[in-house]
Specification:
By secondary structure, the protein is α+β, with helices and mostly antiparallel strands. It contains 13 helices and 7 strands. Strands 3-6-7 form a 3-stranded antiparallel β-sheet. It starts with a helix and ends with a helix.
Length: 295
């Protein structure tokens, strides 16, 4: 029976392979994506209950996000109960390392990592013009409960920066999430979700740097039901062909500023009229206003 279900699901997904290839980047193996999705589905009792449509939707999101990995470093397949249909749907939740990978491929960072801080760790940080962070713990001793989490990232020029969130801040984000049920990753993998939360906050300023990083963040926001912080995204660079249009626009603005107008009534006048009135009356005047001065 189980083998029959696996074969049926594989056939359904394979029938949509062309659609997936059409939206996936070239480096994504749709064959690998479908095989790993079927494996993940059959290994989890709750995922086995998911409708084929929700499994296909999961694959579509993976293809759009540009990943064929299921789990760590890719997309987690998480069973969520649909409040409308009361059925279990397979939901795509990006791993924090996938967000980092997309930021790196977009060229906005060269590296990023996340780590939790526990109550018995040695931890100090300093913000300002020269940010500093020190974190040390004894691997032979219990570290205690998590008190904070941070993300360190390296920019293309070699500069490093970091974002820190306290446990209370992380829990506030968790409280806004719709992913709070017993089977949600917030309950099964709290520390990994905490890492992803701070990574998303750190990478949020780079949203828009590439379609894929934007898509990954959108998928995660849609899955967990929140958006941690509102920051203006980095704009995509303009295409080269737009440059002449921009120059033409600037030229029009300069011309608009340099228009010749009558100092009395404010109407636009021709250059020859302006020159004549400037020489004759010491100011730019239209022909009608010149008559007043002559009179």
């Amino acid at each position: 029976m189980e083998k029959k279900q696996e074969t049926s699901l594989a056939n359904i997904l394979q029938s949509h392979a062309k659609e997936l290839k059409a939206i996936a980047p070239e480096y994504v193996s749709v064959k690998r994506l479908l095989a790993l999705t079927v494996q993940a589905t059959m290994r989890n009792p709750l995922l086995k209950q998911c409708s084929p449509q929700s499994v296909l939707d999961f694959c579509m999101k993976c293809a759009e996000a540009g990943t064929d990995r299921i789990g760590a470093g890719g997309m987690w397949a998480v069973p969520f109960r649909n409040s409308i249909t009361e059925k279990i749907d397979m939901t795509a939740i990006p791993d924090w390392r996938l967000i980092v990978e997309k930021a790196r491929k977009a060229g906005v960072i060269t590296h990023a990592t996340a780590e939790v801080v526990c109550e018995k760790d040695e931890f100090e940080f300093e913000r300002g013009v020269s940010p500093k962070l020190f974190h040390k713990w004894d691997i032979k001793k219990p570290r205690g409960e998590m008190v904070a989490v941070y993300c360190i990232y390296t920019l293309p020029n070699g500069d490093k920066d970091f974002v820190i969130m306290s446990r209370d801040e992380v829990n506030n984000i968790r409280a806004k999430s719709k992913a709070k049920k017993e089977t949600s990753p917030w309950n099964t993998d709290y520390l990994e979700m905490a890492k992803k939360t701070v990574v998303k906050r750190a990478m949020k300023i780079f949203e828009g740097a590439s379609p894929e990083i934007t898509k990954v963040i959108d998928i995660d926001n849609d899955a967990v039901g929140y958006e941690e912080i509102e920051l203006p995204p980095i704009e995509m660079p303009k295409e080269i062909e737009e440059a002449p249009q921009e120059e033409a626009k600037q030229e029009e603005e300069v011309q608009a500023v340099s228009k010749l107008v009558c100092s009395q009534c404010g109407i636009e006048i021709k250059e020859v009229v302006a020159k004549y009135s400037q020489d004759k009356f010491g100011k730019m005047l239209c022909r009608e206003c010149q008559k007043q001065f002559k009179g």
